[in-house]
Amino acid sequence: MTPTVPLPRLLALVTLVAATGGFLFGYDTAVINGANQYLKAHFSLTPTQEGFAGASAILGCIPGAMFAGFLSDRYGRRKVLFLCAMLYALSGLFAAIPRTFDQFLAARFIGGLGIGASSMVCPIYIAELAPAERRGRLGSLFQLGIVIGIFLTLFVNAWVQGRGDEAWNTALGWRWMMGAALVPALFLFGLIFVVPESPRWLIQAGRIAEARHILEQVSGPDQAQREIAAVQEVIGQEEGRLSELLHARFRTPLVVAVMLMAISQFSGINAIMYYSTKIFTTAGVGVQDAFMSSVIVGLVNVVFTFVAIALVDRAGRRLLLLIGLAVQVAALGAVGGMFLGGVKGVLLLAAILAFIAAFAMALGPIPWILCSEIFPTKIRGRAMSVATFTIWTACYIVAQTFPVLNDHPAIGPAKTFFVYAACSLAGLLFVWAKIPETKGRTLEAIEQSWGKDR
Q1: Dihedral (C-alpha) 227, 233, 239, 242: value to the nearest 10 degrees?
Q2: What own/partner pairs with CB < 8 Å and gap ≥ 24 does 272-278 have?
Q3: Who has greater pLDDT, 137 or 103?
Q4: Which of 331, 351, 397, 446 has its CA 20 to 30 A from that of 209?
């Protein structure tokens, strides 16, 4: 049974750090959507340059995710969180004051480094501190932070836009949109001063007394001693090199991590998050109605992330993934069919919302949770880097290909959404065949299970 006592203050702060990292992830990813048209006018951008403005942060995510794993395994999770907060703050500042377009791109690339690094380290940090019976719910708060960041960005941009006319927004408004990220970045920076290092990282670094003090605050002296003993036992069996991921024992979790992250993007989620207004406009919806439909998409995304938080430690990761992916296949197939048959309006919106709801309760949060659970302590950071490198590379591919596929006369939106439905079907079959249940199990028990027949 999950205990009903309130979370210890320390664990609450740790969870807030992960959620704030997720919020900055969401805000920095989505803020460009409101600023794009004014950037284009201010810097007289060509269509190619406009594409670079949108993609520059994503390009920073890829090396950010790659190198953060090595850094977090070598120097600790908390130090990398400090680095993330600094990168977010620097990006928010410099993206608000550039004198040239190249300076703006550099600032966004810095922000992308922060997004990539935080997408790797935040799920690990909360997973390594959370009790096994609460790890799913607390890990889901990282995804909740992301979707709230994306959703609130829409309203921050709208509020800034309303402060002045077109000329004011072209000269200054977009700068305030970008600079608003400074506030949560500084909040994250301050939070890190009052949270501890990951106790599992401390144990593998030989700092047992520090780890025991932290674990006792989270779970009590007896449970702390049991966890220390369990971590020491499995660490003794680990080499601590990235090459260990290629050993037969951990080949399966590596495939699980890479496949889940790739499927989460190739199901088309960011085609909708980045281009929802374009999708609804293509379907013949007016611009104002398309904007309001995008607001509803964001709201559903937030609401069903709460569903994931409520169910992930009760129903389990595997069951939620199976249900969510089954609904995705049906919803995306329906969207493709409606575009093929010229169906517009409420039915199209309902099908897209069904996909968003299914994604938010399953394929949105659960890959982050699972990938933070299934690898050894010594290489968890580097392994998570492989997973986040996969998701950001796939995200970039989807973001770059959707406009081309959507506008191509031989493909169009119908076939594009059929492709996303096929990817979701592949994901459903993969989860059915390969994903074990991890709810309620310690990280060490999950790790040891890969060496056994299941």
Answers
A1: -30
A2: 272/297, 272/352, 272/355, 272/356, 273/30, 273/150, 273/297, 273/301, 274/33, 274/54, 274/399, 274/402, 275/402, 275/403, 275/406, 276/352, 278/403, 278/406
A3: 103
A4: 446
**Residues written for the chain:** 454
| Residue among 325, 365, 310 at smallest CA distance from 139 | 365
Q: How far apart are CA 20 and CA 13, in angstroms?
A: 10
Tokens of 133: 């019976």
Which DSSP letter does residue 8 get?
Answer: P
Six-digit token string for 294: 């995008």
Rounded to two decimals, what is the model's pTM?
A: 0.79
Q: How far apart are CA 241 and CA 250, in angstroms?
A: 12
State the sign of the Cα–Cα–Cα–Cα dihedral 378, 200, 125, 17.
Answer: negative
pLDDT for the residue 327: 97
Q: Please give the Cα distance from 50 to 427 (Å, whole number).
A: 33
Whole-angstrom distance, CA of residue 46 vs CA of residue 29: 21
Please give the single-letter amino acid code of residue 357: A
Instruction: Collect all residues with Cβ–Cβ distance below 8 Å to 397 and sequence separation of at least 6.
Output: 265, 266
Produce one character per residue of 290-319: b if its CB has 16 or more CB atoms within 10 Å, e if not: bbebbeebbebbbebbebbbebbbebbbbb
Q: What is the pLDDT of residue 398?
A: 86
- pLDDT tens per residue across span 399-433: 778 878 887 888 988 999 999 999 999 999 999 99
